[in-house]
Amino acid sequence: MNALLLLLAAANLATQAPRLIEPAEPTYPAQALADRIAATVELRLDVDVDGRVEAVTVVSTATVAEDPTRVATSSVTASFAEAASAAARRLRFSQAFVDGTPVPFVLDYTYHFTLPPLPPPVITRDEPRPQAQVRLRGVVREAGRRKRLAGALVTASLADEAYEAVTDGDGAFVFFDLEPGAWIVQIDLAGYTLAESEEEVVADAITEVTYYLERSDTDGYDVIVEAQRVQREVTRRALATEAIVRVPGTLGDPVLVVENLPGVARTGLGGGNAVRGSSPQDSLTMVENIPVLIETHFGLRGVVAPQLVDRIDFVPGNFSVRYGRRTGGIVDVRLKRLAPDQVHGELDVSMLDVGLYVEAPITDELAIAFGARRSHVDGILAALPEDGGLRFVAAPRYYDVQSMISWRPTRAHDFELFYLGSDERMSLLFDDVASVDSRATGSALESSNTFHRVSARHRFRPSAKIENEALVAIGRDDVRTVAFGRFDFTARLDNLYVRDELDVRVTKGVRLIGGLDVHHQVVNFDITAPRPPKEGQSLENFDQATLVARGEGLVSSVSALYVEAELEVVDRLTLVPGVRADYFSLVEEVGFDPRITARFAWTDALTLRAGVGRVHQQPELDETVRPYGNPNLSLIAANHYAVGAAYKPYDFLSADLTLFYKDLQDVVAGTEEVDVVDGVATPRVYDNDGRGRAYGAEVLIRAERHRGFEGWLSYTLSRAERTDGGTGSSRLFDYDQTHILTMVGTYHFGPTWSVGARWRYVSGRPMTPLLGGVWRAERDSFEAIPGAVNSSRLPAFHQLDLRVDKRWVFDVWQLTAYLSLSNVYNRANAEDVGYNYDYTKQENVSGLPLLPIFGMKGQF
Amino acid sequence: MNHSTHVAPLGLVLATFALCGGCGDDFSPYNEVEGFRLLAIQATPPELRPGERVELTALVVGDDAPRFTWRWCAVTRGPGERHTCAIQDGEIESELPNALLSTSTSATFAWPADPSVTDAFCDVAAQREAPNGAPRLDCASDRPELYVRLEIESAAGERVIALHALPLVLDDAPRNLNPHLDDVRVEVAGAMKPIEGARIDGEVQLELLVPEAAAETYGTNADDREILRATWFVTGGETDAMRTVFIPGDAAATFAALTRNAWTLPTAPRDVTLYLVLRDDRGGVSWLVRRAVVEGGAS
Fold first, then answer.
1. How confident is the model at residue B11 (pLDDT cuts 50, 70, 90)?
2. Which chain B residues have a beta carbon less than 8 Å from that of A773?
3. Residue A326: its chain B contacts at CB < 8 A?
4. H helices then E strands: how many in chain A?
5. From the list B7, B21, B257, which residue is nearest A836 (CB)?
6. B286 CB contacts (<8 Å, ≥6 apart)?
7. Which member of B26, B131, B241 has the closest CB to residue A435?
8. For residue A599, how far is the Cα from the chain centroid?
């Protein structure tokens, strides 16, 4: 608490003005151009906290006719206002910060409609012509993307004559009355390579041209790894998609980059994110606030098309009250708001899968997007000869489909309809199944996960001070695993999500956020399987007794109300207190979660942060259903504590340090106690007698692109422990990894070449040693005798991954080839331990060897 | 929010692969007999009923004079404590059979006819903490399983601890029999011949002679037919399949698939032994032992 008091004691002010990052040029009204009328339109813009223009007000429109005898008509004047308003809505600004907090703002913005120059005085002509004739006209676009470029200076020269034009909002330019001949045309625009072309102008004809300019930087993406967005948490890491598509080892998938951030442990073959001493299932991955069944396919691909992703928000702890129900971390995949200027698309073909993405404007207010991906690993495996009596009936494969419709009928309303569907499955048939499982009663091993989500979202912003976002979504999850006739796990979950959040700026320095968050779930299941191994149990050491459970219409509903304030207490000091209350119908309990964070901007470059908060999480469903679990379990609780500092000495360099402590209470743990239920002795199986703690330090040093280099260094030093009920002694948590070091760097050799590398070093994860086996005669196999839980460790993991990108830019599209090399020095990293049949000998089970993946990506 | 229901089946898939103990390339296969091994325990009949008795014998390899220690366990402590016998520890008072069944190569296990003994036994078992979360004796079932613990120590000091689950049948279900085995034949010069004493070389085809009736039908449902599993233990070379299986209705595990295997023999001349153990899925076990001569010379 001392650190917190220190933060509260000091005060300062951090304010950062917005800057224009995406200009938009208006279309010159055709009638005004014909009438040779110029104009100046003054606008007032309401810009939201993300830098998007929410509302445009025309303050004034002043017109000037080139011919002083002419006057602009009202329709021409209105056309200027309309053109300017339309362009202004496409503007994008950087965020504005007050006291380190991003804020919406109002901005005056002026468009000057300047007439393109008339042909030079016809002094070079023998006979003046009564009316100017168009001789050369064209459009300037960005090569590869076809984006129309406004503001480009086009110069046409022939001998001693030279004329200039500036492209309008549509990238168009025109020259009048050029003499016939071979004119040299130069096009110049900041950020693009100077282009030059020779055009043959002939008499009594119009020469039409289109010029494509290549960007002079790499590809024009904004690169932000850690952004100070709506920072209501001590640590929130916002990953802009463009920053991470080339991180080696991730195949350009934003979701997979999360594991490279501080606080996230390696989960190896299990997948998911183990955050600050919590199991993967204690963290939550959402897409636009909607939980999804799976976040990646086999740890290889995320389920959302990267082209639709605006950013990934990762909060490893001390959440805002907007989030809850998980004691681990939150990953929220934020989708972009569609605003395509024209049809864009992408086709990505790699050795792993094929992805397609298209987005298009329908009207000024309506836009659509569609994405799909399918793996073709199954096709490759099908082409391989059968091996070892194993047949792939359906080899591992996955597919995803997304579509989005965005409609903005007025500046105050924003509607969005989104669909996400995903499926992954695998089916194997063993000719020699008895050798794999001595108790098999079938030869098939099948697994599938399928989910669908349909959401409707409405953002309403009646003024710059009030915003409401409402969300309704439905979804279905189908999960099935069949293994050798002995295990059959079938579950269907129907989900309803309702969420509404109101954000009000009460006064300067006081902002209130309140919301409703409901997740209603109906579960049907039919299970014939053992209890799944839990944290602390090894795969060789869990009770394999087959149990049977069936249920229809089991309802699990969680409803929450939350409220949070952002208070600028004094200069440079902001407090964010909040409270959240969740009612969990499964356990019939209310989780009451007060939280507070504080930010103190010591200097413009140094910000200190601290927070403390409580979160509740309900037990896993299987832990609450007999005979698999105990329906009398209670909520799990955690207290999160963190202090941190962010230091940004240069524009391109930043460093962040966070110290955290997490106290876990009422953790679900196995027990051997027996209860008498309806007169029958019944294993209690689980109780809430477990405890745990995790503590450590996280460091992130980030270099934004500077002199061709960008990258980050992430390091976590931590310890995570559990105390199982009844034992009283502490042991290591399954994902306790003392050192986690990740270094990511990409060097851009020029506009079209880049090479990236990622190196990771991670302490080996704890293991439970096996001390031998007892032979089970009726099973014809040995049963392991476990030693002390997690009392040994695997060897440390380290691996180098590389990625090379080469881009070719053509006029209307671009092609990128990439080569990803995982585990470059082919280290045999131990992911697990394998044993001989009686558990008297062991050897490490290695992860993937050197794995090259090549792909090509076409974009237009 | 979400209940992470995918974790459970994922764990099952991983656990399924973990069942394959000894599948690593660097380990000797389970069915390769290199020395002292306990390969099977047979109860005759394979299930116990009140008022009846069973004879217990074991198939042990590699020691001419093993020292057997037989104990039966009413409720065991679980693998972490090597299935310590409850009765041995005096935790269950006995009107029940003696804990120490035998110290010889076979034992007899009788169960009292008096139902009150079984009830008392179940009452005591119900009060016990459940190892690994599950009671070892499920008295709610019509076939609770009793456990016989067998500890064998070889003359060289090698020791194996084994458990055999013995169904205690409390209803009038059809009786189970140990599966009948006829012989194992081997392909020699294009003809199938008895393997005992055969002179063989290279890779040979094996055929288990077992009547289809060995897979008994039980219960009222015609689909209630036993699964049969054959384990092919060998003292030299390696077999294509460690086990073969017949699963009624499974396209890949037909009765023919149960009976066929191939044996790649060692290259050097020597005697080899095949221990064929056949199990049904209701506790029945039979075995046969056949010796052959490897002539050597084949690559």
1. very low
2. 21
3. 1
4. 6, 55
5. B21
6. B42, B178, B179, B180, B181, B277, B278
7. B241
8. 25
Judged by a CB distance cut-off of 8 A, whether residue A432 touches chain B is: yes
**Mutating which of B1, B7, B149, B281 best tests the A interface, going by the most A Cβ atoms within 10 A?**
B1
Q: Which single residue is written with the structure tokens 């006719």?
A: A65
Nearest to B22 among A291, A442, A837 (CB): A837
Query: Which residues, given as ranges, of chain A have pLDDT below 70?
Result: 1-16, 68-69, 97-101, 117-131, 216-245, 269-270, 381-395, 541-543, 726-727
Two tokens at A266? 């390696």
Contact between B9 and A480 using a beta-carbon 8 Å cutoff: yes
Q: How far is A95 from chain B (nearest CA, A)?
A: 31
Which residue carries 């073959």 as its tokens? A269
Which of A442, A673, A835 comes nearest B247 by C-beta?
A442
Please determine, for residue B276, whether its predicted confidence score (pLDDT) is greater than 90: yes
Asked if A703 and A653 count as a contact pair (C-beta separation under 8 A), the reply is yes
Mean pLDDT (chain B, rounded): 79
Kindly tell me if the per-residue pLDDT of B1 is higher than 60.
no
Interchain CB distance below 8 Å, A544 and B127: no
Name residue A501's amino acid. E
Residue A500: burial class (beta carbons within 10 Å; 0-12, 13-18, 19+): middle
With CA atoms as reference, report the closest residue to B278 among B181, B195, B177, B162.
B181
| Cα A485 from Cα A372, distance rounded (Å) | 34
Q: Which of A409, A224, A377 is nearest to A298 (CA)?
A: A377
* Cβ atoms of residues A644 and A610 within 8 Å: yes
DSSP secondary structure string, A619-659?
Answer: PPGGGGSTTTS-TT---EEEEEEEEEEEEEEETTEEEEEEE
**How many Å apart are CA A40 and CA A114, to the nearest integer?**
8
Whole-complex ipTM: 0.89
Mean pLDDT along residues B55-77: 77
Which residues of B are less than 8 Å from A445 in CB distance?
A: 13, 16
Q: Which residue has the higher pLDDT, A698 or B143?
A: A698
Residue B154 distance to chain A (closest CA, Å): 16
Residue B2 phi/psi, 5-degree rounding, is -70, 150
With a cut of 70, say whether residue B5 has pLDDT above it. Answer: no
pLDDT, residue A236, reads 67
Residues 6 or more apart whose CB falls under 8 angstroms from that of B69 comprise: B103, B150, B151, B152, B153
Q: What kind and span of H or E run contains B10? A: helix B7-18
The answer to whether A451 faces chain B, any CB pair under 8 Å, is no
Q: Which two tokens stand for residue A748?
A: 């851009």
Distance of CA B71 to the CA centre of its chain: 18
